[in-house]
Amino acid sequence: MGLGSVFSLVWFRLLLHAMGDPLMGLFQNFQALTRLGGLGDFGISGALSIKAGMMLGRKEDAELKDLLASARSLFLLLAGGLCLLFIALSPWLPDWLGFKTVAGAGSMTWLFVYGGLILALVIIGGYFASLNYAHSTVTWPIFPTVLFSQILAPLIHWRLAVLQMPLWVQMLPYLAAGTALTWLTWLMLKWAHPWLGDLTPLKKNRAQWRMLAQTSWWAYLITIGNVIYITTDRLVIGAVIGTREVPMYQVNYRVCELLITVIATASYVGLPKLTQWISSHNPADRERLLVETKRLSTFEIVSVCASVLGYLAFNNLFIRLWLDKAHEAPLALQFAFACNLAVTIGGNAGIQLSMRAGDKGLKYAGLAIAGTGLVNLALSILSVKLVSVYGLVFGLTGVAVATAVAQSLASIFLGAITCRHLGLSVGRWISRCWLLPVGFTLFGAVLKQLLPDNSLAHLGLLSVCYLGIFLVVCRITGLDHRLIRSEINQMRALFSKGK
Question: Domain ranges in the chain?
Answer without folding.
Answer: 1-204, 225-499
